[in-house]
Amino acid sequence: MCFRKLMGLGIALAVATMASAARAEIVLEVDLSTPNQITISSTTGLSAATISGSDNIGFYLANIFGAPGTGLSDTLVSGNLTHFNNTSDNSPDLFRFSNNAGLNVFSYTNDANSTFTAGTRAFTGSGTWNIAALTYTELLGGSVSGNVYFPADQDVDISTATLIGQYRVIPEPTSLALLGTGVCITLARKRR
C-alpha cells in the first residue's frame, strides 16, 4: 500500500515536471548552418521563472551535444547575446566541461547580476562563435531541442538550477546532413 502511494506520487511528480517543461517557451535558437560555427540567437520567448544570479556561471543548454564528449575551444566572431533585463558587454563566451552533454554561455553583461523575470522576454541579441571541427560534428549529432537552465555551467548544476525556457536548433542537424549529401552528389555529377 505504501509502495503504491509512493509510486503514484512519483508518477504525479514526473507528469507535473513534464507539463512544466512543455509549457516553457523557446527562448533561444541555435544555428549550425555554417560549418565550424555556432550562432545562438534570442527569440521573443518569455522566461518561465524569476531568478537572479551571476553571469560568471551563466546559462546552460542541456544535452545540446546529445552525449558527453570533449571540451570546447571557441572564438567570438560577434556577440551581444544577454538577458533581456541586462546590458550586454558584447563578449559572451562558451564553455563545456569535458564529459558533459550541455553547453554553457557566460560572461555577457556588465551588471552585477543577471536577472530573468517570469512572463517577460528572456534574452536579447545573438552571438556567433567559431568552433573546432570536432565540436561542430558533436553538435550536429546532438539534440534538436532542449531546456535552458540558469544558473548552471554543467550537467550536475541542473538539479539546483531554474528552468528558464527551451532552445531549438535551426535548421535541424539531420536537415544539414541531407543538404550536405545533396551538395556532394551535385558536385560529383558536375565532375562527370
Description of the structure:
The chain is of the alpha+beta class and 192 residues long. The chain has one domain (25-191). The chain is 26% helix and 31% strand. It is built from three helices and 13 strands. The chain has helices at residues 2-23, 133-140, 173-191, and strands at residues 26-31, 37-42, 51-53, 59-61, 74-79, 82-83, 93-95, 103-106, 114-116, 123-124, 126-131, 145-150, 162-170. The protein has a nine-stranded mixed β-sheet with strand order 5-11-2-1-13-12-4-8-7. A hairpin with a 7-residue loop joins strand 7 and strand 8 (103-106). The chain is globular, with a radius of gyration of 18 Å. It starts with a helix and ends with a helix. Residues 1-22 and 174-178 have low confidence and may be disordered.
Rounded to the nearest angstrom, the distance between the terminal CA atoms is 73 Å
Topology, number of strands? 13
The low-confidence parts are: 1-22, 174-178
The oligomeric state of the chains shown is single chain
Shape: globular
Order of helices and strands: HEEEEEEEEEEEHEEH
Please give the count of helices: 3
Domain module count: 1
Structural class: alpha+beta
Main sheet strand line-up: 5-11-2-1-13-12-4-8-7
Tell me the radius of gyration: 18 Å
Main sheet? 9 strands, mixed
Helix % is: 25-40%
Mean pLDDT: 83
Strand portion, in percent? Answer: 25-35%
